[in-house]
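no rush on this but wanted to send it before i forget. theres a chain ive been looking at and ive put its sequence and its fold in token form underneath. please have a look and point out which stretches look like helix strand or loop to you. thanks a lot i owe you, the record is right below:
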Amino acid sequence: MELIKVAQILNTHGIKGGLKIRPFTDFIDRFSEDITYYIDSENNPVHIENYRVYKGLVYINLKEYNDINDVLIFKGKNIYIDKKDRYELPEGLYYISDLIGFKIIDENDGEIGVLKEVLTTSANDVYVVDLGNSKEVLIPAVKEFIIDIDSQENKIFVKLIEGMLS
């Protein structure tokens, strides 16, 4: 089983074992699904009884717990799902976790490195590319720089402007 992080538990909420969580997913409705979630490892499966969204955070109640004293140990822990339970994305959209490790191919310079990380900013995502020799370059994930993503070959084709690799 491959686990995918979907949220972090920030705190408890109320005396009946509710939890306040920060979602790491754009699919907030996923918390209404009747699937198994895992707190910190596959050894701790849980099921969400109900959820609500307030000011960008999600408040959940777990079917297995109904007392604040039982959920205090979860503060600061992460919530995961099995990778097989992820939403299917439309063509042309990708999960960030699937892109990590893709080769970055510039139209002029050829292979320049490997996607190490994706930074999420308010304007757009930014690709952190490992160039080797302890060097990195940041590439905005916008159509002006990203030409194509080939998920079959694990490659991202880019068009960099002069001086970006310096």
The longest strand covers residues 3-13. The first helix runs from residue 68 to 71.
